[in-house]
Every structure is written in structure tokens, then in C-alpha cells.
Amino acid sequence: MHSREQEIRIAAVQMLVNNPHVIFGSTDVVDDFIEIPSPEASLVKGGHLAVRTRAQVAPVLIQVWRGPHPDLGTVVFDGPTYLPDGSLFVLDVERSTIFSRKCGPSGSRRLTVRVDEVGEASRVDLVLDGGENRMELSRIGTYPLPAIAGVSDPLAPADILNLILSDFDRPKARLVTAMDLVIHEWVADTSLRAAVHRSSRVRQIVEWMRSAFPLVGLGELKRVGSLIDREVADIADGRDDEIAVRISEGSLKGLL
Hints:
Elements: E1 9-15, E2 21-25, E3 42-44, E4 48-52, E5 60-66, E6 69-70, E7 74-83, E8 87-92, E9 98-102, E10 107-115, E11 123-128, E12 133-135, E13 148-151, H1 157-164, H2 171-188, H3 194-212, H4 218-233, H5 242-252
Helix pairs in contact: 1-2, 2-3, 2-5, 3-4
């Protein structure tokens, strides 16, 4: 029986900033910003938070997660935040980039803020209602991936696949781990929709490949996806880890 699929990464935006501070919190009016000396996340008057990012160099990636998220970087804030209308608001000091995301009902939420580099962040993860547990993504030890933090409830295969394919570093490790998940789900799935689930997962991998290998045409990627789908369909026993490695290596030929 499948666990119910969750919505995990609920927003992502890249921001070019001149002033290094990025502000986030509720959609209430943000008071005039005063320079904050702390390199970590700091409270701004009015209940908002601010973090220092890498300004005038390259875009800053802001991601919003609900619960499970990659266990990366440093936690610079972990505490309650009040969202009167259930929306999280993000903006730069000059208000050249502003976005909000409806995250649920109004009320107090746990907010965890993680950055890749304290004081000069190029990646900021805003995590709402993270759990206390941690899980490993990789089952095959020779292809490690960052673990997942903020877990509370069991994750559905679709959620785990979303987390595996949530970034583009270590492309071979991500592909091998994704293939391993798809193979094990296929072998264990006795439902009438098993083939539909398998093909859907493979299409998701192909979409990830479009960003991971932008110089490869969609037609070629679809061809690779069809080969993957056929190979997985022929597998009856998923206990051999080398199957996922072999299919992944065959798929990557000509893509890297």
C-alpha cells in the first residue's frame, strides 16, 4: 500500500540582489530595513527575518520546503513564525524581487532556515513544519547523496523520487539512486497500475535529465527514457544493486 504523496518543495526562485539582505516572513508590511550586523538570520522589526546573501555576484537560490528537505548547509534559524494569511513572503531589500507562496492555513508555523554559507549565502532553504527525523536517500553506498532532514511521516515513493531529483549535483549518483527506487517499486508493486506507476517515474527522470543535460535534445532523452522503461519492465528480482548501476551507465552514454 502506497503512502500518500506529499507536496514537499513548494516554491523556488532565483534572485539577483544588490543589497545582501533577503527578507522573509508574513505578508504584513515590512518596516523600513535597518542594516543588521549579524551574519546569521536576524529578526527585523515587525517580525520578519533577514539573512545575508552573496550580493552582486550571481543569483541567490531561495527554496521553500514543507517538512522533508536536503540536510545541507547550516541552520541559522529554527523557531516559530506567524503567518496571518498562511502565506510566506520573500523579498530583497530594494524590493526588485518579491514573491509569496500560500503554505496552508493561518497560524504559527515552525520555520527552519538553512544556508550554504553563513554571511554569504548563495542558497537559502526555508523549511516549514519540519519533523525531527532524518533518512538516507541512497541505498547503494558507493553512490551517496545528501541525507534528508525534517522527516516526520513515512514518505511515498513519489516523494522520495522528488527529493532524489531535487538537484543536479552528482548526476550519476542521483540517476543510480532514482533507478534503484524505480526498480524496487516495480518489483514490489502488484497493483493493476504498476506499469503506469513505472512509466510515470521514468518520465520524471527524463524531465530531470532535460535540466541535468541541457545540450541533449528532447528527442534523444525520450529515446533513452523508452529504453529505461523497457529494461525495468523486464526485471523480476531487484535484489541485485548492479542492475540500477548498469541501466544508469547505459543511459548516460553520450549524455555526459
